[in-house]
Amino acid sequence: MKQNKNVSxxxxxxxxxxxxxxTLQRRxxxxxxxxxxxxxxxxxxxxxxxxxxxxxxxxGKFKGKEGKVKCVYRKRYCIHVDKIEREKPNxxxxxxxIHPSNCVITKLKLDRNRxxxxxx
Length: 120
Fold this sequence. Notes:
Elements: H1 11-19, H2 23-29, E1 31-34, H3 36-42, E2 46-48, E3 54-57, E4 66-73, E5 78-87, E6 93-98, E7 103-107, H4 112-119
Parallel strand pairs: 1-7
Antiparallel strand pairs: 1-2, 3-4, 3-7, 4-5, 5-6
């Protein structure tokens, strides 16, 4: 049964809202869960991913690998992680995009705004 009458359960409307979301909504969608230690420390389950956070990949081909976030690509709903790359046939290396929901944040980059958000 539907819980909230203001939110549509239509697949078409949900997809439209997801793909036409503005950058602030995309930031919220691109959240990753915190590791168990950070979860206990801050009492928060997930946080939007940021550049220079350290993440561990928990799903997919690169499961178990850890690295710093190089880039958060909001337009494509993906992040690029250090050392997660592949080589093209011409020898060029490219970063492999990973969705933030497939990652766990193991170390946060803290600044004044993020501290305020975690303490609230």
